[in-house]
Amino acid sequence: MTRIRFEGSRADQPASQPGPPGSPAGPIVPRYDAHVAIPGPAEAIRILDEGHLAVRRLVEGLSVDEWLRPNAIGDGDWSAKDLVAHLAEWERYALQSLAEWRRGERPWVESLFEAGAVDQQNAEAVARSRERTLAEVRAEADEVHRDLLLALELIPEEEWRARAPYPTTRRTTLGALLGSVLGAPRRPFGHAYAHLPDLEAYVASLRTRA
Prior knowledge:
This protein is mainly α. The termini are far apart. Helices cover about 55% and strands about 5% of the residues. It has one domain: Four Helix Bundle (Hemerythrin (Met), subunit A), CATH 1.20.120.450. It has 9 helices and 2 strands; from the N terminus they run ββααααααααα. Strands 1-2 form a two-stranded antiparallel ribbon.
């Protein structure tokens, strides 16, 4: 397995980080200097699919009102629909990054990380997703997830471990790049798991009221 070095600056944090007012709150990740193992393609697929299925199982029984209820996820104003749209958006970024990598380009998401603009991008993406219906968001999330898993299945090990075709000292291999785009602190490819506690708490609160 490749190992990626995370350093605790805002620019180096993956998709799930404490955001501005209105976004779900998460634990503040302290500065740290650790080597996090990056799994191979098969293990990455397993992690991603298990996270996707865990989210899907939790939301499956929600009514439309429960899907759209604001202030439901964490301490921000996100709904369950917003969360599903957010997870799908980062899977799109991973597909985009893979295409850019293969063209020999520096992925756009690297600039996002370096600028420390993840929170702003998340807020803007969720705002755009609110213009789409619940059915559209759910269908798009399932579609992009299928596309992502298929793309990962077709990546050979040598490409996964290949060095970046552009100057970088951080996400230096394709696996490391995708693990960061699709990851959470200390958990490559574990983006969904960063949000599961908040989603589980929301669903549990609905059962308590019933």
